[in-house]
Write a structure and sequence with these properties.
heterodimer, B: alpha/beta, Rossmann fold, five-stranded parallel β-sheet, three-stranded antiparallel β-sheet, 24% strand
Chain lengths: 218, 204
């Protein structure tokens, strides 16, 4: 399992691996928003938490179609399925590698981009916490979507449509934590809901992903 | 371990392609799979490798014994030859990749990126993967495609060494490898029944 994780990380950082794609997209969204909505800093402060969460979510979505498709195209997915690793472990490791190369960097740069959107000072802590708790769910749900659409030509479109509704609860509670935190309000309830969603997806979805992958590999 | 196939019917895309297959693959033996294009050789190998379930029939002795090589080599173009092999070695829990590099003359290419290799060199690397799996039953699907004469010889030698160590191999190929294996011609097993209901119950 560690070998697979290390390989995926290595592939992501090497030329053409797609590391940085999500980051660049996140940067573009947050830089462009002030141009689009105008420079009133009070308005930006109000929408900052939501925009940052939406940007992070879409950046995550951007890299999902490569998650399993590359391994499927070059035949390594077939070979992994006949290897001693259970497919549940394969999809879990794939999701973890996706989070380490996409989700975690987004969490780390979010506070810097928060400055561009005039995020109120108490919001930075809660933004990082909410992204840290919420983005693993985005990777795990995304892996499930990728498993459903693996083998389809141009499956990215269908993947986005399938995954977006599944992302809604995470977005609602994640952005709510960040928004309430920025306003100095109580954040416990949405944070617990967010953590619950993440824990449930990590516990359950790898089994679903492995099951659909088995069917799709036939 | 002997691989035993009894009364096997296999499907591709909801259409039965081969039926009534019975054979046994014993240790130390090679079985050469023959048959016209589209008869279902690849589907048979995929079924035996456990990638899809058979429609009818049983496969015994295949569990965790099979190393499967498909048409594609499963190589990552941005990893080097060594990294590609070492990855598969650690997935299969074996440690040494040196014998595999030696057997397919890959030592000179060890530090090259797999993406820069020629088609034949990639295939050699894909076949070298079989050696690092440590599995006893090899399933090879057209292994000699794009190999030159010397490389075919290397491959045949590797299979012979594998058989001598008590392994076995099922090889779908149309060229003569010079192996003293039995020939399994599946042409006679072409399925007569029509397409199944195209509803895939797997998603239920």
């Amino acid at each position: 399992m560690i070998a697979l994780l290390l390989r995926d990380l290595k592939l992501a950082f090497r030329a053409g691996g797609g590391f940085g794609l999500g980051l660049a997209f996140f940067l573009i969204v947050t830089v462009m928003v002030p141009f689009a909505v105008g420079p009133q800093s009070s308005l930006l402060a109000t929408i900052a938490a939501g925009v940052l969460w939406l940007g992070a979510l879409l950046a995550c979505l951007l890299s999902l179609d490569r998650l399993l498709a590359l391994d499927w195209e070059d035949g390594s997915l077939d070979l992994l399925a006949t290897a001693p690793l259970p497919l549940e472990a394969v999809v879990t490791v794939k999701a973890l590698a996706h989070w380490l190369t996409t989700g975690l960097p987004l969490v780390l740069v979010a506070p810097i981009l928060g400055v561009l959107l005039n995020l109120p000072a108490p919001g930075f802590f809660w933004l990082v916490i909410s992204l840290l708790v919420g983005t693993p769910a985005l990777s795990v749900i995304g892996t499930f979507g990728a498993a459903l659409t693996v083998g389809l030509k141009r499956g990215g479109l269908l993947l986005s449509l399938l995954v977006l509704p599944l992302y809604v609860p995470t977005l609602i509670f994640g952005a709510e934590v960040a928004r309430r935190g920025a306003l100095g309000m109580e954040t416990q309830t949405p944070l617990l809901m967010l953590a619950g969603i993440t824990a449930a997806t990590i516990a359950l979805l790898p089994f679903a992903s492995a099951a659909v992958l088995r069917i799709n590999l036939r | 371990m002997t691989l035993t196939v009894t009364d096997l019917t296999i499907t591709r895309g909801g259409v039965p392609v081969l039926e009534g297959l019975n054979f046994a693959l014993e240790t130390g033996r090679a079985l050469i799979l023959r048959g016209p294009n589209g008869i279902g050789k690849t589907t048979l190998l995929r079924t035996l490798a456990g990638l899809q379930p058979p429609l009818v029939g049983t496969i015994k002795g295949a569990e965790d014994q099979i190393a499967y090589a498909s048409h594609s080599d499963g190589l990552k173009p941005t990893l080097t030859v060594t990294e590609n092999l070492a990855f598969w070695a650690s997935v299969f829990g074996t440690d040494s990749i040196q014998p595999a590099l030696d057997a397919f003359a890959l030592n000179e290419l060890a530090d090259r990126h797999a993406g820069n290799l020629s088609a034949g060199q990639k295939r050699r690397l894909g076949l070298a993967r079989m050696l690092v799996t440590g599995r006893s039953i090899w399933m090879l699907d057209e292994p000699t495609v794009s190999l030159d004469k010397d490389a075919v010889q290397m491959f045949a030698d590797a299979v012979r060494a594998h058989l001598a160590e008590g392994g076995s191999a099922l090889i779908a190929t149309h060229i003569d490898l010079g192996l003293d294996g039995d020939i399994l011609d599946v042409g006679a097993n072409k399925a007569k029944s029509g397409p199944l209901d195209d509803f895939d119950g797997g998603f239920l």
